[in-house]
Specification:
The chain is of the alpha+beta class. The protein has one domain. Helix content is 26%, strand content 38%. The chain has one helix and four strands. Strands 1-2-3-4 form a four-stranded antiparallel sheet, with helices on one face. Strand 2 and strand 3 form a beta hairpin.
Length: 81
Amino acid sequence: MNRHLVTVKKIQDLENDDYNVLIEGYDAEQERDFNEIVTVQQGGFLRGACLDPKKTPLSKGCISLIRIVVLDAIHKRNMDK
C-alpha cells in the first residue's frame, strides 16, 4: 500500500508572524506528485490552493496530511527561536 508523502522544502518568514511554506510530495490516492506553497497566517490559519477541495486534485487524506506536516514544521521552527 502506498502512502502520502509531504516534505517541507523551505519556510519563508513574512510580516506579522506569517510564513510561506514550500512543500512537495506525493498523493498516493491520486498517484500524483505535487509542489505547492501554503501560507500560514498568525493564529495557525492555513491558506493555499492545495488545501481547497474545490481548487485541488489532491485527495482529502493528502490535504489532511499537508495541514499536519505544515503546522508541525511551523511549531518546531517557533520552538527553535
